[in-house]
Write a structure and sequence with these properties.
With 72 residues, the protein is an all-alpha fold. It has helices at 2-27, 34-49, 57-63.
Length: 72
């Protein structure tokens, strides 16, 4: 009987935590300030100067080996 109560308490605490997290996600917003925007832009410029391009999922699937052990 105590195991059932413990599981019920665990589920209740998990649901309350989930509700709090969902509420924070919907009602609390985060905006970068000017200094953070400047740092992000500087990092992006440095990556582009080095020839970095961000790959989409199709590019990743074409370029990685997905054959399992034989890829090694």
């Amino acid at each position: 009987m105590t195991t059932i109560i413990a599981i019920a308490v665990f589920v209740a605490v998990a649901l309350v935590g989930w509700m709090i997290a969902e509420g924070k996600g919907k009602f609390v917003t985060y905006n970068n300030n000017a200094q953070e925007d400047e740092v992000l832009a500087q990092n992006r410029r440095q990556l582009e100067e080095k020839g970095y391009t961000e790959l989409n999922i199709g590019d990743v699937m074409r370029t990685i080996a997905t054959t399992g052990y034989s890829a090694v």
